[in-house]
Amino acid sequence: MSLPILVIGGGGHARVLIDGMLLQGRTIIGYTEMDTGAKREAILGVPFVGGDDCIHRYSPHELLLVNGIGSIGSPERRRKIFESFKSKGYSFYSFVHPSAILAPTAQLGEGVQIMAGAIVQTGSSIGDNTILNTKASVDHDCNIGNHVHLAPGTTLSGSVHVEDGVHIGTGATVIQQIHIYKNSIIGAGSVVVKDVMAGRTVYGVPAKEVKV
Ligand SMILES: CC(=O)SCCNC(=O)CCNC(=O)[C@H](O)C(C)(C)COP(=O)(O)OP(=O)(O)OC[C@H]1O[C@@H](n2cnc3c(N)ncnc32)[C@H](O)[C@@H]1OP(=O)(O)O
Q1: Where are the domains of the chain?
Q2: CATH class of the region 5-93
Q3: Which PANTHER family match (predicted)?
Q4: For residue 37, what pLDDT is reported?
């Protein structure tokens, strides 16, 4: 029997996840919000159950968590949520939308979120707590780390290596065999033709480092 799900967060990303999990027929107990101030509306019939602290009312063995926190740059908040609840013994559900296409040899970490229309080709691996957002495409033999966000419509060519904590913006394209080092940000619509060093922000066609 599959365990019921509790969603952390009630913003746009959480709503898309809830929509997809209801399509899969999963039972969702409710969703939480960091700010417990006001009572919130149900999302697609899924009730608000309180602040993130209320997760401790449930034993780690009786449910699975879903990280509903989105990110538009640094994934720090998503990473903290994931690591904090993992350290308390909770497990995260790996969501794969029914319309996603995964090669049989693709490897998925814990708590990955493979959204509608995303594709993962043969020999590729996706790390823990990583989002492949709507129509993101990962070609053969890519290695994607933990807490990465491939925003909607990103395209990775073959044998691309993306380290932990990277954000690749909406519609960006990465050519083959590029290495993107940890915690860097690739701007929306960029074309990445050179390796990107750790912690840098690059954008444009071809993508260049932003001077600060
Ligand atoms: C479902 C979802 O919604 S998921 C969310 C998906 N969203 C994304 O992926 C967003 C990705 N973020 C970006 O592309 C951002 O623009 C960043 C991170 C590259 C830069 O952000 P900021 O540092 O805030 O830059 P800011 O907006 O101040 O712009 C600075 C300059 O860079 C330019 N610029 C910003 N982003 C880009 C880009 N992607 N490509 C080309 N130029 C850009 C701006 O036009 C501006 O130029 P100007 O000084 O001549 O006016």
Answers
A1: 5-93, 95-211
A2: alpha beta
A3: ACETYLTRANSFERASE, UDP-N-ACETYLBACILLOSAMINE N-ACETYLTRANSFERASE
A4: 65
Q: Is 15 helix (H, G, I), strand (E, B) or coil?
A: helix
Two tokens, residue 177: 């065999």
Rg (Cα) of the chain, in Å, rounded? 17
Ligand 1 pocket list (CB less than 6 A): 72-73, 133, 151-152, 169-170, 185, 187-190, 201, 203-204
- pLDDT value, residue 212: 56
CA of 187 to the centre of ligand 1 (A): 6
CB-based contact 148:164 (threshold 8 Å): yes
Alpha carbon dihedral 119, 123, 129, 131, in 10-degree steps, equals -20
Q: Quote the pLDDT of residue 51.
A: 87
pLDDT along the chain (212 residues), means of 10: 93 97 97 79 94 90 97 93 97 98 98 98 98 98 98 98 98 98 98 98 96 62
Collapsing DSSP to helix, strand or coil, 167 comes out as strand
Alpha-carbon gap, residue 173 to 192, rounded angstroms: 6
CATH T-level fold of 95-211: UDP N-Acetylglucosamine Acyltransferase; domain 1 (2.160.10)
- In terms of C-beta density within 10 A (0-12 exposed, 13-18 middle, 19 or more buried), how is residue 188 classed? middle
d(CA 55, CA 68): 14
Rounded CA separation 19/150 (Å)? 20
| Alpha carbon distance 89, 155 (integer Å) | 34
Measured in angstroms, how far is the CA atom of residue 189 from the centroid of ligand 1? 9
The verdict on pTM exceeding 0.90 is yes
